[in-house]
Structures are given as structure tokens and as C-alpha cells.
Design goal:
- This protein is an alpha/beta fold and 344 residues long.
- The chain has 3 domains: 47 residues, no CATH class; 157 residues, Alpha-Beta Plaits; 97 residues, TIM Barrel (Alpha-Beta Barrel).
- Helices cover 49% and strands 18% of the residues.
- The strands form 3 sheets. The chain has a 6-stranded mixed beta sheet. Strands 9, 10, 11 and 12 form a 4-stranded mixed beta sheet that branches. It has a two-stranded antiparallel sheet with strand order 5-6.
- Helix 3 packs across helix 7 and helix 8 packs across helix 9.
- The radius of gyration is 34 Å and the shape is elongated.
- The protein starts with 8 loop residues before the first helix and ends with a strand.
Length: 344
């Protein structure tokens, strides 16, 4: 037996809303107005043109919006904890690939932060960092995420978007730099800073995880730092190759020092006045068993990064004193021996 349910205005309104609410319903308004004019003339035309928009708004037009297609984001306009940020990066990295959207990961660093502390003090540096975070947040959308990774480094992961390419990222990096590099007033003194930015598009991430994506942005930031203050760099596969090569050198350099692969070459020093030999200069050279001769400009930074400069100095000095002793024993007068750790 059928049961007749009582008429309900909210129920009817909901049904009508599903039928006509949404911006797509606007496409039918012109047809409705023309039909009214054809049936009732000019008065019907005017009445329909006035009443249809009112009815549309009354039934919730424009207020019924589909849920966002990608609700992965942190609390808008706040700094996230690093572990929370990394989890979101993982989810966005997977989600953008699954949903055919785009995203980008930025790392932003204040240049010469230690010099800033030395010149203005820790309190002033803290004020600059606080103001920097505020300025970055002002450039963000609600779906973007930000975290502080270190003393002077921030990471920014853009919310997924249908239109995300290299040009968009460069423009975003430029806006960030312009905002951050505005002078900061600290106790009546204007403090000027520059910032380096590295970024990686999700589509160019070299790996399958968010950690790989983060690493790529870090590599881009390191490359920006090498190029000088206020530099922007996008990650590329060539950067990764060079970084891997440098990492391999750092791993090999300690063995090279201890096995005698790095030795001095003695270059003569001649007086331009007399034309006589005034001494020698000991230049560090690396005879790699597989790669051959490696230029000092390539391996000296690796030694410095590995914290082995003192060990290199000990070895070169040992060879220099040994050579001087041999020359004295042979009756050869060598007034001096200099040591050079530069790339020349």
C-alpha cells in the first residue's frame, strides 16, 4: 500500500536546487527569457529577466560547490612541523601523479645567515627569520604548505594545480624573492638580506617518493648558493649527476689521502730579476687509479666538505719536508718551499 508523504518545502527546494543550482544553469537563462518574450511579449520578458535570477539565488545558486578535488593541505597560513610537512609532501607527490595535476617544491634560504648574526646579533637575525616566514606565508594560497627546515631555510610545497609548469614556478620564485628581500626594520635599523631559491617540479622529480622530491629541491638550492646571492635554480637531471659525482668524490677522498693518491707536484719559482730558482711551490694533485688526473678545483671542495683539509695539509707538508731533506742530502740548495691548496 502506497503512503503519501506530506509535502515539504525544504525537500522540494533541495530537489529544485539539484536541478538548477550551479553555474551551468546560467546557460539556460537566455533561452528562458526568449521563451517568455515569445509567449507573453515585453512584460513577460522583463518579469522573467528579473524573477529568474532571484529564484536562482533563493534556491542556493553559487552556494552549492563540489568539494575540492585534492584536499591534501595543512592548516592554511601556518608553519608546519617538519614531519607533518614531509607526510604531506609524500601524499602530494603520489596524488599529483594519480590525478594528472601538477605541484612544485621550493626551498628558500637566507644568504650569509652567519654574517647576518655577526653584524646585527642573534636577536636581529631571529626577527629577520620571523618576518621572512610571514612574508612567505602572505605569498601562499590556502592549499599551499610551508615548513621551516633549518635556521634560515624554509620549504614550500604548492598545492596541486592543473596548470603548473616551469614558467609558473619561476614567477612564484621571483615573487618570493621580491617579498623577502624588502628591508626589515630592527630597532630602527634597516636590515637588508638576499635569498637563494631552489625548486623542483613534481613532474621532474628523480624518484618515486616525496623524499626524492625533497632531495631534488635541496640539490637545486645548493646549485643556487654556488651561483651567488639572490639566485634561483630549477632542478635538472644534470644537477643530480654532478651532485652524485661530488658525493662519490667525498667518499673516495679519504682513501685517496691515506693511500698516497694525492701527492704534491713541485713547481719552480724563478726570480724575474736574476733568472735564478728561488724555491718551489708544492701543488696538490690527485692521481686517481681509474679516472686519471683529477683537477684540484674538483677534489679540493670535496676534501673541504669531508672535513679533511687539515689532513691534506699534514700530508703535503710531510712530502715537502721529505723533499727538502733529500735535496739537502744531494747538495741542492732550495731556499724555500711554498704550499698551495688552491685550484691553480
Amino acid at each position: 500500500m502506497a503512503v503519501n508523504r506530506p509535502w515539504s518545502w525544504p525537500k522540494l527546494r533541495d530537489e529544485l536546487r539539484h536541478a538548477i543550482a550551479g553555474t551551468q544553469a546560467l546557460a539556460f537563462f537566455p533561452a528562458g527569457v526568449l521563451a517568455a518574450y515569445w509567449i507573453g511579449g515585453e512584460p513577460a520578458l522583463i518579469g522573467t529577466a528579473v524573477l529568474l535570477p532571484i529564484a536562482f539565488l533563493a534556491l542556493g545558486g553559487f552556494s552549492h560547490r563540489p568539494p575540492p578535488s585534492f584536499p591534501l593541505q595543512g592548516t592554511p597560513k601556518t608553519l608546519l612541523q617538519r614531519d607533518v610537512f614531509r607526510e604531506l609532501v609524500d601524499k602530494i607527490h603520489v596524488g599529483t601523479r594519480d590525478r594528472m595535476t601538477g605541484s612544485a617544491l621550493f626551498q628558500v634560504q637566507i644568504d650569509e645567515y652567519q654574517s647576518l648574526i655577526d653584524r646585527h646579533g642573534q636577536a636581529a637575525a631571529d626577527s629577520v627569520i620571523k618576518r621572512t616566514s610571514e612574508r612567505i606565508i602572505l605569498q601562499m594560497r590556502d592549499q599551499d604548505n610551508i615548513a621551516r627546515l633549518g635556521d634560515c631555510t624554509f620549504a614550500l610545497c604548492l598545492g596541486p594545480s592543473r596548470h603548473m609548469d616551469l614558467e609558473v614556478c619561476i614567477q612564484m620564485a621571483g615573487r618570493l624573492q621580491t617579498a623577502i628581500e624588502e628591508p626589515v626594520s630592527v630597532d630602527g635599523v634597516s636590515v637588508f638580506v638576499t635569498t637563494s631559491i631552489g625548486f623542483c617540479l613534481c613532474s621532474r622529480s628523480p624518484g618515486i617518493s616525496g623524499a626524492d622530491w625533497m632531495l631534488a629541491a635541496s640539490i637545486a638550492l645548493l646549485e643556487a648558493e654556488k651561483r651567488g646571492p639572490s639566485t634561483i635554480r630549477a632542478f635538472s637531471k644534470e644537477m643530480q649527476r654532478v651532485t652524485q659525482a661530488h658525493s662519490a668524490l667525498r667518499e673516495e677522498v679519504q682513501n685517496a689521502l691515506e693511500t698516497g693518491q694525492i701527492t704534491p707536484w713541485f713547481q719552480t719559482q724563478i726570480s724575474t730579476d736574476t733568472g735564478k730558482v728561488t724555491g718551489f711551490e708544492a701543488l696538490a694533485r690527485w692521481h686517481h687509479p681509474e679516472r686519471g688526473m683529477i683537477a684540484p678545483a674538483d677534489f679540493l671542495p670535496a676534501i673541504e666538505q669531508a672535513g679533511l683539509l687539515e689532513r691534506l695539509a699534514e700530508i703535503i707538508m710531510h712530502h715537502a719536508f721529505t723533499a727538502l731533506k733529500s735535496w739537502d742530502y744531494a747538495g741542492v740548495s732550495v731556499p724555500q718551499v711554498g704550499v698551495n691548496f688552491s685550484g691553480s
